Amino acid sequence: MRRFVRCIGVALLAGLVAAPAAATDSQKLDVDVRGRTLTLYVYQPPAGAPAKGTIFMGSGDVGWVGLATTLAEYLSDQGYVVAGVNVRHYLSAFTTGKDHVTVPQVPLDYRSFADALKARGLLPSPVVLAGVSEGAALAVAAAAAPESHAWVDGVLTMGLPPSDELAFHWSDFTSWLTKKPMNEPSFNPESLIGAIAPMPLFMIQSTKDEYVKEDDYQRFEVAAKDPKKLVLIDAANHRFTDKIPELKAQVLTGLAWIQAGGK
């Protein structure tokens, strides 16, 4: 997304530059994707609990920290296998000079993630592609490809942006300080969102999102095809900071709706 990330002091920036640590209850799974080693952060349900399904959770552009990890931990406690995708690492792994991830590559890469989980018996149905911010946009891109309809059962987005970067250079960190947009190639999720159908699409947006305006999510709703749902939460910002309990409740509602086939 062509925007800046608010930076709270130099100490926070230093923390972001360091590789984000996975939560203590996750396991790292290295996956070979087009000759690059990418790491999934896999959270499993409590011991002895039957798995309710699989959720691929894409992070925002700061990496595997924050809201995405909070939701991954919560959803695994609720009985789901959650595979966390570090979007910053994913994009930077394929960014070399002018080379970068392309939209057609995203569904193939997500299928590689799914195959790695399946090989280890960690892909129970239904399979939902989900994400926060940039991760939400990648979920849309991955699910929109016709070949994804054979293994994906639905999509759940949170804070879906009007555009999303396809590359990441370490020099992009300066934009978080200067508050200028990242100068990277990007795509528009609105142009792909209609192709998700007939899979269910559940969208959650903040009404006070500082990056995604009302016109943006209204366009998403128009471009998407049934079955679809748009849920608005009166949260203070893009990260739903003051409404995390409500966000969690709506995520569970969305997952149940997807499992029911969007009915």
The CATH architecture would be: 3-Layer(aba) Sandwich
Assembly state (oligomeric): single chain
Task: State the CATH class.
Answer: Alpha Beta
The number of E-state strands comes to 10
Mean pLDDT: 89
Amino-to-carboxy terminus distance: 31 Å
- Quickly count the domains: 1
Tally the helices: what do you get?
Answer: 8
Overall radius of gyration = 17 Å
Low-pLDDT ranges: 1-24, 174-180
Structural class: alpha/beta
- DSSP strand (E) fraction? 15-25%
| Biggest pleated-sheet summary | 8 strands, mixed
Helical amount among residues, as a percent range? 25-40%
Global morphology: globular
Quote the CATH topology: Rossmann fold
Q: Encode the helix/strand succession as letters.
A: HEEEHEHHEHEEHEEHEH
CATH superfamily: Alpha/Beta hydrolase fold, catalytic domain
Query: Taking strands numbered 1, 2, ... along the chain, how are they ordered across the largest sheet?
Result: 1-2-4-3-5-6-9-10
Architecture blueprint of SSEs:
Elements: H1 9-17, E1 27-33, E2 36-43, E3 54-58, H2 67-77, E4 81-85, H3 87-93, H4 105-119, E5 127-132, H5 134-144, E6 154-158, E7 164-165, H6 173-178, E8 186-187, E9 201-206, H7 214-223, E10 228-233, H8 244-259
Parallel strand pairs: 3-4, 3-5, 5-6, 6-9, 9-10
Antiparallel strand pairs: 1-2, 2-4, 7-8
Helix pairs in contact: 4-5
Walkthrough of the structure:
- By secondary structure, the protein is of the alpha/beta class.
- The protein has one domain (9-259): Alpha/Beta hydrolase fold, catalytic domain (Rossmann fold, 3-Layer(aba) Sandwich), CATH 3.40.50.
- Helices cover 32% and strands 20% of the residues.
- The chain is built from eight helices and ten strands.
- The chain has helices spanning 9-17, 67-77, 87-93, 105-119, 134-144, 173-178, 214-223, 244-259; strands spanning 27-33, 36-43, 54-58, 81-85, 127-132, 154-158, 164-165, 186-187, 201-206, 228-233.
- An eight-stranded mixed β-sheet has the order 1-2-4-3-5-6-9-10, with helices on both faces. A two-stranded antiparallel sheet has the order 7-8.
- Strand 9, helix 7 and strand 10 (228-233) form a beta-alpha-beta unit.
- The protein is globular and about 40 Å long.
